[in-house]
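I hope you will forgive my troubling you with a question about protein structure. I should value your view on which stretches of the chain appear to form regular backbone elements. Here, with my thanks, is the record as I have it:
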Amino acid sequence: MTVKFDGRMMVARHFPVFLPLAKFVWMELMIKRLCTICVMAMLLLCSSYAEAQRKSSAKKPAPKKTTTQKKTVSKKKPASTAKAKPKATPRVNLAQAIPQVKDSLLERDIPLRNFDSILMAARRQETSLKSPDFNLGKTLGSALENFIPVQFKYAILLNESVEKLSNLVLYKNIDDWYGTRYRYGGKTTKGIDCSAFMQVISEYTFGWVLPRTAREQYVAMQGIKRDELREGDFVFFNTTGGISHVGMYLQNNKFIHASSSEGVSIGDLQSKYWSRRFIGARRMPEVTPATAAPTQLD
């Protein structure tokens, strides 16, 4: 006789208490699955509805405004890719400032650095009512055709009559070095200090061979009074202790020197800075006319 095994019958027969509990658990699981399916279906319906609404609103034209105010439409200029060019600074050349100068002379003042801007500033100073100190007629003199542009340039810088600037070799050498930056121990156009600059100017202008330092140059020269200064004399200053700076006197209380802040430039003995630091004036020993250096350009 064969006996068939039935698990359900065994559970129902031997464990009748657990049968309702199993049915309850199974029903709860089925309900959760149905709820999950319903929620997912609802989400799909909502998303499809929102997508349809978005497409329909995009197709509809925007309603026109019924306001009576006029619309002010500001046209935007297209942005240019190229950079804006800087405005050219106004320049006044020698012909506009001094009509009496000949054209042949005007061609020679082109290589001079910043001459037009210097002349423009001089004319502004002359025409200003607040500071009418500069006299262009006095500075440029009467016989304009007898002078070269470098004389006009330094006559303006020194605020002096152009006739007094007769040593052309001196001012031409100064102009070759003008604006060179300062460098301690330097002796080239890349950088030069005050005592080396005095060596170069003295040798190429007057034929003087000077010592290297400012202190040695002070000892090698003869002392003079300040009111006895003339073109080519030396002025010494105490800037860092003792005799530490030197320059060459030109005209009208002005001197040329290699400044640590401005390079080769023109200083003023009457300024507060230089007047407080002034030590004394010196002059090279007199030379005979036969050995003196020329003052005119060949």
Q: What stands out?
A: The radius of gyration is 48 Å. Residues 87-114, 288-292 have pLDDT under 50 and may be disordered. The first strand starts at residue 187 and ends at 188. The beta strands are 187-188, 191-192, 222-224, 234-237, 245-249, 254-259, 263-268, 278-283.
